[in-house]
Amino acid sequence: MNWRTIVVVFMILSLAGLLFFSKTKTKDYVGFFKEKVGKFTEVLKSAGEPDIRVVMNCDRDTLDDHRINLLDSTLSGEFSIGFLSVDGKKIEVKQPRMEIYAESLNGKIYVDENGVFSINAKATSVEVGDFIFSAEPNSTIEVEIEAVPLTFTLTGIQNSFDLENVKGMVKLENGKFTANLHGEKVKLSNFVGDLKLDGDELTFDGNVDSVEIKNEKTISIY
User: For 83-142, how does the pLDDT look when each residue is reduced to its tens digit (9 = 90+)?
Assistant: First the structure.
């Protein structure tokens, strides 16, 4: 191992230690590190998993006019259903307010400006009220649902979010950094985790590559 390799390894270990003890100075250390090592840090970042722990509680309308990618996701909750189709066949629902449970969802959810979910995905099984729709072994079924969520939990998502007018609170690294939000813009880069709606409170719970909070000033944490 030559002296250049030793120096690079030492700087990586030093940066890792500093990140654990001082989140407020992270940006300065990363800037210094990039200056010295250059593009090597970009390779490190892209190769790793999101490692900044984030929990954000906010108003339910924060998610309006956004798309959510579903990658083997699980959706459960209570919805007011306006439209339901399985494998291209429309299913009549007499009581629109019903429980939905769907496993191994791959597709997308679009949330319109009124908070209505449009779900277009493939799944291994879907339960709507007393109805159960299951795919054959090693197969999937196509699901289309339009519904207003009353409560829901969506697990296993990977998505970046550019959120406007966020009101609530964000906590990073198990409360080491906390900020009250009063209408700021919040960007969650490569969010991997869960979404939960309970009443009018929406919770993002997972890990991210970076968090950016914008108002009159911008706070960025990488």
Answer: 999 999 998 888 889 999 999 999 999 999 999 999 999 999 999 998 899 999 999 999
Query: Do 205 and 171 share a structural domain?
Result: yes
Range of the structural domain that residue 213 is part of: 52-62+157-221
> Is the C-alpha dihedral spanning 6, 8, 11, 12 positive or negative?
negative
CB atoms within 10 A of CB 217: 7
Summarised one tens digit per residue, pLDDT across range 185-204 is 999 999 999 999 999 999 99
Show the tokens assigned to 160: 């970046």
Give the burial string for 172-201 (b: 16+ CB within 10 Å, else e). Answer: bbeeebebebeebebbbbbbbbbbbbeeee
Among 104, 139, 154, which residue terminates a domain?
A: 154
Tokens of 51: 């490692």
| Contact present, 153 and 194 (Cβ < 8 Å) | yes
* Entry pTM: 0.75
180 & 121 share domain: no
Angle at 156 between CA 90 and CA 193, to 5 degrees: 135
CB atoms closer than 10 angstroms to residue 65: 12
| 88 and 28, same domain (yes or no) | no
Q: Supply φ then ψ for residue 62, to 5 degrees.
A: -60, -30
d(CA 30, CA 202): 32
Answer with the one of 124, 154, 184 that is the final residue of a domain.
154
Quick one: CA dihedral 71, 53, 202, 181, positive or negative? negative
